[in-house]
Amino acid sequence: MCITDEENWNVVKDKKVWGVSEMYKNTIAKVEKGDMLLIYEMGKNGKEPKPQYVRGLYEVTSEVKTDNKRIFGIHPDRPNETYPLRLKLKEIEVFESPILFKPLVEKLEFIKNKKQWSGSLRRAMVPLSEKDFNTIRNGK
């Protein structure tokens, strides 16, 4: 599962590309052509809070390539970050009704701390078991 914000979700959707920073090179290196990626959009705090959604399902169609061209939004703490480690994607489905994530937390095995579950998502990518993938994909 790929974790992003609203701005970069739109980049993924429009350009069919996923990118991560160098600090996640070991994680993205495990991804292979044909793997399926769910795209998770982080919520926002503030005056108009925004819930967390799973927005779409994509198939990986390339090996990891390095490209420093800026296509993704600017990271608030790392303005020079370009997320250069990239995968090309094929859209399988953009969910017409995005899958609300919070109701699934209790059923997901990869989330160990159900009270502070967002800590499990503080990284660029999270490997999922087939069971967790299906739980999220089916929204149940």
Provide the fold topology:
Layout lengths: L1 E3 L1 H10 L1 E4 L4 H4 L7 E6 L11 E8 L4 E2 L18 E16 L29 H9 L2
Parallel strand pairs: 1-3
Antiparallel strand pairs: 2-6, 3-4, 4-6, 5-6
Q: What is the first-to-last residue Cα distance? A: 16 Å
Shape: globular
- Considering the protein shown, what is the CATH homologous superfamily? ph1033 like domains
Unreliable runs: none
* Count of spatially separate domains: 1
CATH fold-level assignment:
ph1033 like fold
In brief:
The chain is an alpha+beta fold.
What does it look like?
It is a single chain. This protein has 140 residues and is an alpha+beta fold. It has one domain: ph1033 like domains (ph1033 like fold, Roll). The chain is built from three helices and six strands, in the order E-H-E-H-E-E-E-E-H. It has helices spanning 6-15, 25-28, 130-138, and strands spanning 2-4, 17-20, 36-41, 53-60, 65-66, 85-100.
